[in-house]
Structure formats: structure tokens, C-alpha cells
Amino acid sequence: MIKRDVLLMFSGGLDSTGAFWKLMQDKRSVHVYHMNLNNKEKRSEAESIAVKSIVEYMRQFGDFDYSESSHTYPTYCNSFIWDSDIASFMAGTICQAVPWIKEIAFGRTASDDAEVPTMTERRERGNKILEALCDAKKIYPVMDLTKKQIWEMLPEDLQKLIWSCRRPVTSENSIVPCGKCVTCESMKKKKIIQPQIQKNQNQS
User: Could you tell me whether strands 6-9 and 30-38 are parallel, antiparallel, or unpaired per DSSP bridges?
Assistant: First the structure.
């Protein structure tokens, strides 16, 4: 087993794909980890297709490990577990099992806090969860970039594989961005056109 020293929490979205790209360009030794989050947003299928495609694409730029897990949870009082909570818990759990991981990479930009008012609260709670489980430190490879700059940094072929919408609209053959969630609104403001997923084509 290669002792990777960076764990990348990877969703297949713009920010985490930018972090993935930056880590590979910097020749870091990376273990890429994805969580299939099955909740009322119903975005796990789209993310899973995007993640599979991106991981396959990124193999040409260097060696890395990949793993994933699935998490299904109900809604209570119109609420469900925050991504930052479960991501911090799983990152800490992995680092307990793999003590040579020293850094945990997240896709985060400087504008995230302003765009999502509860982001600071979520991140601080996630930090407490992580600190209770391990000593690995969080890093943010694209923190100094805007979403538009991340988008422009990526190869065009990679741009076409990214999925960021949180509430996709699914039909028998395709999955399209909702155009209404926080992420879709953010992408529209920056004039970033999100791709559609042709399910049959991507799952063949």
C-alpha cells in the first residue's frame, strides 16, 4: 500500500474538482474519497456519474487512490445532516485508520462564506468533529481562487464532467441542473454553464 499523505474529500463539483486538479499538478500523493449522500436532495446519482468520469479522466495526470462510501439518512423537521458534518466525521474516521494521512483537502473558495450564510457555522462545527477524531489538518488548495478562476484553470474536457447542482432534475435518459439551488445560482452569476448528464451514455 502506498502511504498517501493527503486525503481529498471529493464531490465531483467545481470546487473539489479544482482542488483535485491542483493537487495533481503539484504532484501530491493523494487518496481521493467520495461520499454518496442519499437524502431528500436526490443528487447522489448525478454526483456518482460525475465522480466516476472525473476519476477516470484524472488518471492520465498521475497516480492516486480512490475509495467511496454510501450514506442514507432521512429528513427530520425538513432538515437533514449537513455535508460538512458527515464529511468531517468520515475524514476523521479514515485518518484514524490511516495515520500517515497528515492533511485533508477540501474544495473551498474565499467567497463561500458570503454565498452561504450558515457556512462559517457549519465549518466550525465540522472542525470540532474532525478534531475529536484525528490530528490531520485541513487544507484548501483553491482557497485563493474564485469559482470563475477555478473553472478557467480546468481543461475544457474536464469542465464538461463536473456536477455541482444540489437538486437535479432527473428523467429516464438525462439529468439536468435545477437552476434554482444555491450552487446553480452561484454558477449562473459567474456565467458558468453546467453540463447535463446523459445517463445511458455515461453508464455504458
Answer: parallel
